[in-house]
Amino acid sequence: MRVLIASAGSHGDVFPFIAIGREMLARGHEVLFFGNPCFREYVTTVGMEFVPISTSEEYHRVFGEIAEDDPAKALKRITAHFGEICGDYYMALKANVIPRQTITVSSSVFFAPRLLSETDGVPCVAVHLAPNVIRSNIKPARSAPNWIHAGTPALIKRFAYWSADTFFLDPYFTKPLNTLRAALRLPPLTRIFGSWINEADCLIGMFPDWYAERQLDWPSKMVMSGFPLYDHGAQAPLADELNEFIAAGPAPVAFSAGTANANAGAFFRASVEACCIAGLRAILLSNFAGQIPASLPNGVIHVQYAPFGSLLPKLAAFVHHGGIGSASQALKAGVPQLIRPVAYDQFDNSARAERLGVARELLPKQYSARAAATALSQLMSDTKLHGRCSEIAKRLTDNPALQIACNAIEAELGLTGGSTRTSMLRIAAG
User: Fold this and answer.
1) Which backbone phi and psi does 388 adopt, to 5 degrees?
2) In what order do the strands lie in the sheet with 282-285?
3) Gap between the Cα atoms of 324 and 107, Å rounded
4) pLDDT digits (tens, 9 = 90+) for 319-358
5) Is residue 418 predicted with pLDDT exceeding 90?
6) Stretch (H or E) spanning 283
7) Containing domain of residue 87, as a range?
8) CA angle at residue 200 from 194 to 205, to 5 degrees?
9) Is residue 207 domain-shared with residue 269, that is, in the same domain?
């Protein structure tokens, strides 16, 4: 079977699909991966064919324009970008379809494969990378710093969802999607985050049920596989410079604003000052060197990239934005987390990590050098929290998420051609 995987966004958005593609490739399927050239090497080194969409320059330009301190503006810019490239993905996918021998796999919030399903009848797999995209009137996900919750009256819940659709989601997501749908002679859609977002031939939730308990009003056909926990080069040693730094003193704290965040200069400046106040060593993680202070004190270094699977277990704490990839890797590493959520799924992931007892939160408006220093000191001395980190990490020691997800894809879509190993894994996954 030919598997067309379409992915866009940050490392946390793309890596799970590289992981799915690698597993499908190992099962004997032909896999083509469609994405920005920034991710070409990550894809080709695991053996998949790469089809470039857009340019690396465009990727850095778009994410350089996203205002970190304005969640609504950030959402508007990223959805505008997705709308701009959706047609290119659609045409590239369509050009590589072999009738009755092709399926597509993509994030539930990236719509090109869904369009191809409607126009050409190509079976589609939609993946919810984080639980915040699934609506529930029973236990709503946290979509903003102050949002509806399980105890909110039903009328207010309905009003909150109506407001989100009317003022944010319909203008940012539905309107550009309908423009493209009109060009393809497809009927317009409304309120796509109600039920349409869950409508696919196979629906996967890539998180475990102990992280996000299945609600009675969630889509019943969704398979919850667990976290993908894919980290390119996770088993490779860290760079010599980074290893030497870690070994030269007490375990450091790492700070990340997300791999696609180019406007977090204030965060990194406050973080450096916080480490000076608290007497901590620090690793600043950012692809965008321009947001890192030009002069760093002793005990603080800047690293463009390090695989979390290798780095996080060596840390005293991890300060990050709350993206699902960063949060899940920190859970696996058993490292205490200080989360500074800014937008997207981050508020919900932060709340879930706090409920698990492994993290504390500082919103951007609260994140000063003094507040961060105090929070880190409390976090690192909290023996109960450290115990919870270890308990949660044990749950992820054996993590068959990718096998479960790919078993579901093969079973739901009737794919054949896998190995004996695949059949055994399908039986083991139930």
Assistant:
1) -65, -40
2) 300-303, 282-285, 253-256, 317-320, 337-339, 359-361
3) 13
4) 999 999 999 999 999 999 999 999 889 999 999 999 999 9
5) no
6) strand 282-285
7) 2-227+399-428
8) 75
9) no
